[in-house]
Amino acid sequence: MSLLVLGLLIFFATHSVxxxxxxxxxxxxxxxxxxxxxxxYALLSLLGFALTxxxxxxxxxxxxxxxxxxxxxxxxxxxxxxxxxxWVAAYVPRTRIKAAIGQPxxxxxxxxxVAHLMSNGRAGDLLLFGAFLVWAFFDYLSARRRDxxxxxxxxxxxxxxxxxxxxxxxxxxxxxxKWGHASLIGVAPFV
Length: 191
Fold this sequence. Notes:
With 191 residues, this protein is an all-alpha fold. 79% of the residues lie in helices and 0% in strands. The chain has nine helices and no strands. The longest helix is centred in the last third of the chain and has 28 residues, at 123-150.
C-alpha cells in the first residue's frame, strides 16, 4: 500500500499546484520557462502515475472490506459512460458541454471515481478512487473560481461539436468496456 500512497502523493502534489500554489507556479514558470516547467511537470506526473498503478496492482489480492452488490458493477459501467463523454468534451473546442460545466475533464474524473467507489470494496480501491474524488472536487472548485475571477466565458460553436464529443465519448467508452478494461485492469466490467 505504501507504493500506492507514494504514487498518489506525487501525482496529486503535481496536479494540485494550481489549487494551492498559483503564485508559486507563476513565479517558477517565469524563472525556468514554460517548456522546462512542463517537462518537470510531465516527468513527476508520469512517475506518480506509474507508482500509483504499481501500488494499486499490489493491493489486488487484499481482502474486501465489504462485498458490494453485483448490480453496482452495472451501475458503475453506466455512470462511466457520461464520464467518457465529459473527458472527450474537454478537448473538443467550443462545446456547449464545456460551456455548461466549465471543467468537463475534472467533472468526468469525479463521476468516474464515484462510480468505482460504489462497486469496489477493498482498501486499495477506497484509497485510489477516494483520493481521485477528493482531489477532483477541490480542483473543480479551484478551476471554477479561477474562471470567475478571470471572467472566462466559454464560447460555443455548432451543435456538431457536442455531437462529436458524445459520439467519440460513447465509442471510446464501448471500446474500453469491451476490450481495454479487461486487458489493462484485469476486470471485465460487464461479465
